C-alpha cells in the first residue's frame, strides 16, 4: 500500500496547463492512480486538500464535493476515517465549513462539542439537527 501526500492528490485532480513541472507530476500522479495499486489517504491529507482546492484554486463547494466523491469511489484507494469524511462532505453540502464538519464528525461518541464559533457553526449544526450538539462555553 502506498500513502498519498496532498500534492499527489492535487496533481491528479488539478490541471495547471501552463506549468511544465506540474504537467510532469500530473502524468506521474495519473500513472500511480490508474495503476490499480493499493493506495491510502489520511484524513489530514483530505483536510489539507480541501483547503488547497478552496483557498488556492478557488473551487466552489460543489466542485470540492465532486472531487471527494470521485476519490472515495475508487476501489483501490483506502481513505482513513471514511465515514467521518463522508459526513464532513455532507456537512459541506449543507453549508458547513469542511474542517468544522470533519471535527464535528469525529465527535459522534460525545454528547456535545464545545466551540466558540456560534454563528457559522453552532447555529448551523442546530438548524440541521446534527448530533452531537454544539455548546458555547461561557
TrEMBL record:
Name of the featured protein: Nucleotide-binding protein
Pfam families referenced in this protein's UniProt entry, alphabetically: PIN
Domain PIN: 4-123
Lineage: Bacteria, Pseudomonadati, Pseudomonadota, Gammaproteobacteria, Thiotrichales
Amino acid at each position: 500500500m502506498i500513502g498519498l501526500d496532498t500534492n499527489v492528490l492535487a496533481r491528479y485532480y488539478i490541471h495547471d496547463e501552463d506549468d511544465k513541472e506540474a504537467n510532469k507530476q500530473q502524468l506521474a500522479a495519473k500513472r500511480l492512480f490508474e495503476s490499480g495499486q493499493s493506495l491510502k489517504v489520511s484524513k489530514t491529507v483530505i483536510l489539507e486538500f480541501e483547503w488547497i482546492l478552496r483557498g488556492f484554486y478557488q473551487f466552489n463547494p460543489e466542485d470540492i464535493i465532486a472531487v471527494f466523491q470521485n476519490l472515495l469511489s475508487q476501489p483501490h484507494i483506502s481513505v482513513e476515517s471514511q465515514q467521518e469524511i463522508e459526513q464532513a462532505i455532507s456537512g459541506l453540502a449543507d453549508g458547513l465549513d469542511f474542517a468544522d464538519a470533519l471535527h464535528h464528525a469525529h465527535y459522534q461518541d460525545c454528547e456535545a462539542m464545545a466551540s466558540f464559533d456560534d454563528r457559522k457553526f453552532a447555529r448551523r449544526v442546530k438548524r440541521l439537527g446534527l448530533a452531537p450538539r454544539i455548546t458555547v462555553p461561557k
